[in-house]
Amino acid sequence: MKKCCVFMVLCLITVLSSTIKAADYQSHAARLPHGTNYIDFRNIKVAYRDIDMRTPVKVKEDTLYTVVLDLDFIGPNTFDQDEFPVMTVCVSQDVDCETVNMSVDRTRSFWHVSFVTTADTVLLQNVPVTGLIGYNFMMYEGSYADFKGFEYYVSYEPITYEGVYIMDYDRPKSKAELREQLTVSDPKGGPISVDLIESTFDEANLDIGEYYLKYKATDRMSNVSYFKLVIQVIDRVAPTITGQDTFTIEQGKTITLSSIVNQMVITDNVDPLTPDSIEVLKDTYTPNQNKAGNYEIELSVKDRSKNETRKIVTVNVKDIFAPYFIGPSAIYTYLGDGGLTAESILAMYKAMDTNDGDLTHLMTIQMMDYKPNEVKVFTVYLRCKDQAGNEIVQPVPIHVIDDTAPVFQTTEYVMTKGEFEAMSREDVLAWLSAKLQASGVEATNLSILLDETEHLENKRRQAYIYYSYEVDGKVHQSRLSIEYPKDQTIKPFYFIVGASVLLIGATSYVVLKKLKKH
């Protein structure tokens, strides 16, 4: 009979060893567990009459830990025979190992042992078990007195779900009614326990605001999920804003934003709101309070339930300033300049407005009795009107001055084609300057405007060089005549002689070239 029991234990050990996978146990052992239990069965190596951890597990240093096993996992025979069981606690493989006695709780059919860690890792060795039925093998932080029942190793961090329930203040729900909003299921099947573990919701003292209920769902293998139900207790009635819709002021005078806001009256069915509760969403008036125009101020007020009411207030700043001109206060002109036109006078001015900016394109002029050929002081009137209808009329005196002066006349100078070609451009200009000076003209800025000798296509007896110069700031123009020589004809005798010479020379060149090759 005893041999049969041993055979059965060996078979169970073989089956258990083949089904436990250690794919993740090393990475899990390098961190603290997500749950209470530190025993990951993937980290367990089963021997003939005991089990060992494959690799040390992460723990808290200088901390009390307790190991608990139940009768099914120990095995009835082992539980009865080993009245004083022991196990080995190491920091790591063969490092700081200590054999500790395990206590027997016969009332509950448990073995348990407590120890204090000396490092941040622990390796359990030689745990005397043979039953291996179930999964009630647990190591946790604390004493045996803290044991509240077996919990299984949690491989992954628990999932926390979250939802929001909007509750009308006038239609409250109880905690029981809120629990009914949740449906909990286990994808693998099996029983699930759901516990309320945290709550800030007090149905007896309900108020506007946000609260929550936190539930914990646990399946039979200690897998845990959490659900946080956020409860927003709201009031559905929005506040009201009453007050003046439009404020009209003259440009140059101001009204403050706080003055406008403080004139508003705020009411709400629940919350005691005041003008201090108002938020300014838009304000185009304050940065433009010295400019004429219509501006908007958008106000908003919210109660604790986020119900919002908005109001738009218009500020009308009335334009009372006329445009102004930028330009000369008087105009001086000379008879020699020719007459001034309305366009030429307007081009001297710009019309600007404090609010409308550049209004030059709206300027007009009244020329009155202006006569450009009469020496006199005339008055013209500039006018401009802005968009608000403010107009400016500005008189401008025009002084017409007599500036008639002597007029220089020069003769047309003549130069032969040969003389002209023998001279550089600078020589020609120097020659012209000397000619002008000889005739009593002190010329400056002498320059050639056009040289016909460079552009003539048909032969003719003469071409012209056009030039300009200044005398006392006035520009004069004249021209220089270039005389071409008469055409020369070649006599037949000289043509025949020349052709013969060329023929003889060409023949001699060819004969000499052949002799050199030979």
TrEMBL record:
InterPro entries the UniProt entry points to: Ig-like_fold
Keyword entries, A-Z: Membrane, Signal, Transmembrane, Transmembrane helix
Domain of life: Bacteria
Membrane-spanning parts: 493-512
UniProt signal peptide: 1-22
Keyword Signal part of the UniProt annotation: yes
Protein name: Uncharacterized protein
